[in-house]
Write a structure and sequence with these properties.
The protein is built from 17 helices and 14 strands. The chain has 495 residues and is of the alpha/beta class. It has two domains: 31-234, Rossmann fold (3-Layer(aba) Sandwich); 243-308 and 335-495, NAD(P)-binding Rossmann-like Domain (Rossmann fold).
Length: 495
């Protein structure tokens, strides 16, 4: 039981905030709460998996989803069908299971909240072009659910927000709508407990990774932790609201900076004519040396690519910076922001892909204007239909600015949900195109052979944004090859 609740001691030391000791330890474990009535607002990549896990644990769960024009998502979920496409282990079977057992249903009616014990908020929290949070969905959810709050109910915000948002935006709306004060036992409980999901690992990440719960008071935190304990295997840690909010945004900002570092090194390798992946192999070859943990030389350099997409990484750095700018008690006048600069570089990578393409076309005596480009991959992540903040969009916009036409292939993304036309016939997309551009590394593209490209492409150009092709083989077959992190010496006799 102790191992199930707590991670190993070394990790626990890292997870434990100095100012907010976990409320439970090995001597004071919570009793898992089941048989509760729970509402989950927002049936997306976070709301659906957390809802079905809680339902499978024995709770009665109601999903609340804003109805679209045809209400297809509500209808699908109530039929036990999974609306999330691509490869998503366990999720489709779990949805079907809990719907068949009568443990999970979805509606667009907020009035069902009046009978529940816990309310989870899992709505989108994007940023605009000026990197300012757009909280329309969050505000709407808070105004609606606040009307049905009663003393003892627990509201848990799981959507990623700028640090300070739960305290200074969510709490006032809920208090105004309910006429109650946040805090137990006389008012409603309020917590922030962030998700750590990733497409293709939605169920796994929720169930297996440590859960951080930040509450407005200790009782809110304790009760929320007990509820989560029925589904979380990786450990549950309690802290305050602001620490939990900062931790979430820092997790993704940290990864974003790492990717940006890899992208910058890749650009450096291109300029110097070498292969980033050789450099990465040697850098990451430093061994893990447990004999001296504090001076452990191990490195884990990320891979570069055509751009960073998804709902989280492109915005969470800006949420962190927004929280600092709006709510910081003390401001530090440091000269520049590593995190902001990382964002700018990662956002620029799709433009770099067009630069590589134009250089390759010029080498083949072709103008990018009126060239036809085969763009492979629209989703931001391989083997997924998730196209949120995909780098393919700025790539296409830049192609249009420079006068190129294009055809897009993706095996998962439905063109009815985006503003671009997606073709399913790969050969048709490749046929008579002047260049092939890899934006997403879907498995289906592994079967593309050099021979097929020689037959179908009008101009023998490959622009590889995801390290799919072997440049030596491509160049040996007469292709002009460009790739992120692949210098001009790669695949030539100069190497």
């Amino acid at each position: 039981m102790k191992d199930k609740f707590n991670v190993n001691s070394e990790v626990a030391k890292q997870l434990e905030p100095r100012a907010a000791k976990p409320l439970f330890d090995g001597q004071n474990l919570p009793i898992a709460t089941t048989g509760k009535k729970i509402a989950v607002i927002g049936m997306g990549y976070v709301g659906i998996p957390i809802a079905v896990l809680l339902a499978d644990a024995g709770n009665i769960v109601t999903g609340i989803q804003k109805k679209s024009e045809n209400g297809w998502k509500i209808e699908w979920l109530n039929e036990g069908r999974c609306p999330i496409g691509g490869y998503e282990p366990e999720l489709p079977d779990l949805i079907k299971k809990v719907v068949n057992k009568g443990k999970f249903k979805v509606t667009d009616n907020y009035s069902s909240i009046k009978d529940v014990d816990f309310i989870l908020i899992d709505v989108q929290t994007p940023t605009d072009d000026d990197h300012v949070p757009r909280y329309e969905s969050l505000k709407e959810a808070c105004h609606e659910l606040g009307k049905f709050l009663h003393p003892g109910k627990i509201v848990i915000l799981e959507s990623t927000v700028a640090p300070g948002t739960t305290e200074y935006l969510v709490k006032p709306i809920l208090e105004e709508e309910s006429g109650l004060k946040a805090g137990l036992p006389d008012g409603f409980g309020l917590c922030f407990s962030y998700e750590r999901v990733m497409v293709k690992r939605l169920i796994h990440n929720i169930r297996e990774y440590p859960k951080i719960v930040g509450g407005i008071d200790q009782e809110s935190t304790r009760v929320a932790m007990e509820m989560y304990h029925s589904i979380i295997k990786g450990g549950i840690y309690g802290t305050d609201l602001i620490t939990a909010e900062i931790s979430k945004t820092v997790e993704n900002a940290y990864r974003d900076v790492q990717i940006s570092f890899a992208n910058e090194v890749a650009l450096l390798c291109e300029s110097l004519g070498t292969d980033f992946y050789d450099v990465r192999k040697f850098v990451n070859g430093l061994p893990n040396d447990p004999s001296s943990p504090t001076t452990n030389p191990v490195r884990n350099m990320h891979s570069p690519g055509a751009g960073v997409g998804g709902h989280c990484l492109p915005k969470d750095t800006w949420l962190l910076i927004h929280g600092y700018n709006k709510y910081a008690i003390v401001k530090n006048n440091y000269p520049t922001s590593i995190m902001a600069n990382a964002r700018y570089l990662n956002d620029w990578m799709p433009i770099h892909m067009v630069d590589l393409l134009e250089a390759a076309l010029t080498e083949c005596n072709k103008d990018i204007k009126n060239s036809t480009i085969a763009v492979l991959g629209y989703a931001f992540l391989e083997n997924s239909d998730d196209s949120r903040n995909t780098p393919t969009v700025p790539f296409l916009e830049e192609l249009k600015k420079r006068g190129a036409t294009y055809k897009i292939h993706d095996p998962y993304v439905k063109d009815s949900e985006i503003r671009y036309c997606i073709e399913r016939d790969l050969d048709n997309v490749l046929h008579d195109s002047d260049a092939l551009v890899i934006m997403t590394k879907h498995d289906v593209y592994n079967s593309i052979t050099i021979g097929k490209l020689q037959t179908l492409l009008r101009t023998k150009i490959i622009i590889d944004g995801r390290n799919l092709f072997d440049p030596v083989k491509c160049i040996s077959a007469g292709f002009v090859f460009r790739g992120v992190g692949k210098g001009k010496r790669v695949g030539t006799s100069e190497l």
